[in-house]
Amino acid sequence: MAALRWAAALRWAPGQAARAAAGLLGRCSGRSYAAGWAESSPTFGFLLDIDGVLVRGHRVIPAALEAFHRLVNPQGQLRVPVVFVTNAGNILQHRKAQELSALLECKVEPDQVILSHSPMKLFSQYHDKRMLVSGQGPVVENARALGFRNVVTVDELRTAFPVLDMVDLERRPTATSVLRSDFPAIEGVLLLGEPVRWETSLQLITDVLLSNGNPGNGLVTAPYPHLPVLASNMDLLWMAEAKMPRFGHGTFLLCLEAIYQKLTGKELQYEALMGKPSLLTYQYAEALIRQQAERRGWTAPIQRLYAVGDNPMSDVCGANLFHQYLQMAERGVRAEQQGAGGSQEQLRSTTRSCTSILVCTGVYRPGEPGSKEPPFHGHRDFSFSPGLLQASHVVEDVQEAMRLAFHEEGWPW
Ligand SMILES: [Mg+2]
């Protein structure tokens, strides 16, 4: 993979760090280590889920606040590399970083935040293509921030072709529309997160795929393979204030896949699926951790990652899949060293393990009477085995998780 091209754009802002330090010094008293005590370069880092681990709704979980007070050194800087990995996507990266900075009382840089669609930055071959973008909130800003320079929203497409969106009687055109022939063809589809008005998005995305990007023209035979589709956030459900879970973007994808399959007899194909538990997201996170360590001048290679989350289906499964990948990659590197082939990227990675830690402050409830076989809520393209949902450790909260990791690393907490 073109691994670190994007990483070169990461910037270190010493002024911001100094301001963060100044703001945090007052809260650093009472820690167990003495002033002037210096730690060596860390060889481990954290991938932290956000909802259910650090925050619930808009409120910080107290254990997370305490954990971050301990996670900064007397200069107010993080003692080890940390990235925040969330499946949320209908928000801007810098806005999420601002939210976390305020909640955790610790400066969080935008490039420490990985949203579900962040790895789309890697797909530069599509950045100049004319892409239909689906989602809600700041979809155009998000697509631009990911590198896409030529995006069309579902609403813009609907305006250009008003006869396509016919489910809602109130929104049907009242006058006869002139069919446009000057609308440039769509060349791909970005599914960033769950949209509103699903019937409109499902209809228009399907139209684009069946017409090879020219929804003003009907094609006798739909092209296959169809235009490239990049999608993020496969979560079927999520927990909000309601007692029962709510539809997530995974439910929208399920609808789109079912419609496409029914209409064409063929399977909707994804160029890439990202967000936890996809390997792509963890590879991206690993590279950001490595960049963060380099920026801080930590010379020791990062060898072990600890992934803390509250959702077995995304956080635990993703961390375990990544751990399996690392183990296989290491074997590949050994094979390479023995002259049997292997990728340069595998040779570059220094990470050897990813430990999954499940906390009990969010979705997961310990000791819940397990009904027989729970239904499979993962995505069609991901096959799960029950073992992948077993965390290496189950602890009460994120502070316990960090204490455990520091203890394993022989570092004072
Ligand atoms: Mg969560």
From TrEMBL:
Q: Which GO terms describe its biological process?
A: glycerophospholipid biosynthetic process
Ordered alphabetically, the record's keywords are: Signal
Q: Which family does it belong to?
A: Belongs to the HAD-like hydrolase superfamily.
Q: Tell me, what's a Pfam family for it?
A: Hydrolase_6
- Secreted keyword on record: no
The name of this protein is Haloacid dehalogenase-like hydrolase domain-containing 5
On whether Nucleotidyltransferase is a keyword of this UniProt record, the answer is no
* GO CC entries: mitochondrion
The lineage's top-level taxon is Eukaryota
**Gene3D superfamilies, per the entry:** HAD superfamily/HAD-like (3.40.50.1000)
